[in-house]
Task: structure prediction
Amino acid sequence: MAAPIIETKGLKKYFDVRAGKLHAVDDVSLSINPMQTLGVVGESGCGKSTLGRVLLGLLPATDGEILYSGETIFEKNGKKKDKMYDEMQMIFQDPFSCLDPRLSIRDLIAQPIIVRKKMSDKEQIRLKVLELMDKVGLSERYINTYPHELDGGRRQRVGIARALALDPKFIVCDEPVSALDVSIQAQILNLLMDLQEEKGLAYMFITHNLCVVRHISSDIMVMYMGKVVEYASKEKLFEKQYHPYSQALLSAIPVAELGGRKDRIVLPGEVSNPINPKPGCRFAPRCKYATEKCIGQDIPLVEIEEGRKVACTLYT
Amino acid sequence: MSNLLEIKDLYVNYNTDEGVVHALNGLNISVEKGESLGLVGETGAGKTTMALSIMKLLPAKVGEITGGSLVYDGQELLSADEKVMKKIRGDKISMIFQDPMSSLNPTKTVGKQVREVLDLHFKNLSKAEKQEKIDKMFLLVGIPPERQNEYPFQFSGGMKQRIGIAMALIAEPELLIADEPTTALDVTIQAQILDLMRNLQKELNTSLIMITHDLGIVVEICTKVAVIYSGQIIEVGSVEDVYQKLHNHPYTAGLFNCIPDLKSDAKRLTPIKGSMASPDNLPVGCKFCDRCDFKTERCEKEEPKMYMNGTHGIKCFKYEDKWGE
Result:
């Protein structure tokens, strides 16, 4: 097996808020190989976007380790660190607000190249921009237009071209299709998969849409309130979910079919407060299987069969 | 059964600085008493414009109804004046909005906001009777009545949407229009709200128009489906008609194909090519023809009619010979 391109060990990110410490990401260990996609699913506020940002160094980690190609990121500085971060890019959720409205498409796509001083010759940059536009399926005639002239799907293509400009090896996709209509969503998903095939990219795909995750991922990590509750290969997870939260999450998806779903699990209550959480399973207040064992001590993520880790007292 | 709401050949334009935007282009739809209609379409298809037209809440000066008819319970709404509309809004027809964060007033307690509806539409109830009604409503939507003296910011998104539903239902409307009520919510909360809406609709026998872009939500809640594209209904039918996938408009078929589903193992999705025609420059013929794989020359020049087979209607020349008009 190939070596993982990115790995984390016991990664933590706590935010200081007035009421105490907000545990956004708590003890997350993951690894992604080239050509692989790790889908991170969970509801709003479960820490999935924070995780992506910490990986890319946009937010400092509180504790834990991040390894890029086997080397820890935190010890690197200067040029070496810059090179690492060149190879790690991000595609953002909202194609409407992540593009500077005052820059043309040419300037937007050329920006990373100019900022990182990869090329200086204007003609060379223009050719590179055209090449990138071609790669993401943007017609050449858009080169001098501005973001407001494009629809959501095309704007997202500009976002992808920007992420590709520095020839990355790892891309964090933070809900890249959730602001798009379904017909456009399919176009963008296909594009992302083609690019992965062609360039051997590794993705971390953050989303709350489980159908999308099933389509694009090789492994899936289910998060609840900053903790990983289940981590398994896609086939295993969709065949059977072990953690009660994964079960409820998967059964909550509306299916566009006649007589779609009868066995829906409707969870009572809502996500509780992530500030200064008490030790114990964070899902316990909404869980119908919760017992005394679930409260008082942290539940470790245990490998219960090959390729599947679960953090639940039902299986330990 | 009689039609509660009947929209015929409705045209709505938005007059903007950059020109006229044709939002609705001859839209036909009807809702029977107790029926739940799912209105499916993409951004810019005219879903919300249709809802606002029914309530006559289109933005003043900009939005303009240029033709057609809108009959509610035997009464023509297009010629009705503001006084009549005020009686209908909230009392007969009410609406749940997409974004529960911005549709509530942040400076008033939620109980007071629900009471406002009663103050307007049930003037002859006593204070105690009103309070009893409010308490009952809060219980019905699953919020402890003790919390009615709290402000919107003290509630989570799902709870706020429940309050929105309470406000919409307290005047016992005959028709409820829900404009993407769960889009801003997480899936597990969405499941709670859909569950609630399904039960309430059964209990109160309200007619429902559910506006959504999610084909999965429609099949769970609705009995009838209408697909809207470029301001026209291009397919209509019972849930069975449409979801059997035997006969579909090419656009509807495209929508079904491009959702990644939980069962199929297709490696690639089949997107619908291109994007929706700009509403200030619509094609003369079929509005979908530029994106359609079955396009003929005729589609560009002539607009197809709605061809019917029982309750199932499709606006495409493919069905001209097979089905009647």
